[in-house]
Amino acid sequence: MRRPLVAGNWKMNGSRESIQALVAGLEQALSDVEAQVVVCPPAVYLDQVAAGLKSSRIALGAQTLSEYDAGAYTGEVSASMLGDFGCRYVLVGHSERRALFSESDAQVAAKFAAAKAAGLVPVLCVGESLDEREAGQTLAVIGAQVGAVQEVLGVDAFVNAVIAYEPVWAIGTGMTATPEQAQQVHAAIRAQVAEKNTAAAEQLPLLYGGSVNAANASALFAMADIDGGLVGGASLKVDEFTAICRAAQG
Ligand code: PGA
After folding, report:
1. Which domains does the chain have, with CATH numbers?
2. Of 98, 216, 207, which is closest to residue 161 (Cα–Cα)?
3. What are 118-131's pLDDT values in tens digits?
4. Of 14, 62, 148, 216, which one's alpha carbon is 20 to 30 angstroms from that of 110?
5. Integer Cα distance of 80 and 147 in angstroms
6. How far apart are CA 111 and CA 62, in angstroms?
């Protein structure tokens, strides 16, 4: 059995004050939730969130990382630094990183490798654009994004890792994939991982992301290969995020 997992991607939002309130609210609201919950604040607030989460079962994650270990890389944050601040998870290759900051499949694979080398659990984000979906290329695009990581890391690439399927057209738009559309892609991802490593495929948490909210979460999470969610906008609201976490535990 795969343990349900819900990750909140706070993106570039918040202030010391609002984050203190959010963490305190989540601590209280999620104290009896059985799903694994992860929050991914902006890097400068990781320490503050780690301090606020001390007693709790909520894990800490980062939104991105450098592919380099240390040295003259101005502005970057390494995997070992994230580990030093208590991170267990890190998002890799979010579509906003790919589209707005030109991260290539090769760079995403290098970041994924850096995360694993430092003992972090990478959450590989994959997804197709609306044009790609309409052209019937969805499974090919996702297959290439997953394959780029398999090429670099080999058969054990997705041991102790997570994949999040986030159709680009569904992120922040209010347009969610239907449970059937998401399930079709999730099943294809699991099959691709299974071709290299059956055990890893069976254990791999596959998250859906893209306008997940309290109203649509249950139907998505009921699908056989959807093990939880990667939540953006709704993760900034305690009640909404809590409802999504509860939906994940069935
Ligand atoms: P959204 O974002 O839930 O606001 O659509 C999801 C994400 O980008 O991870």
Report:
1. 5-248 (3.20.20.70)
2. 207
3. 999 999 999 999 99
4. 14
5. 25
6. 12
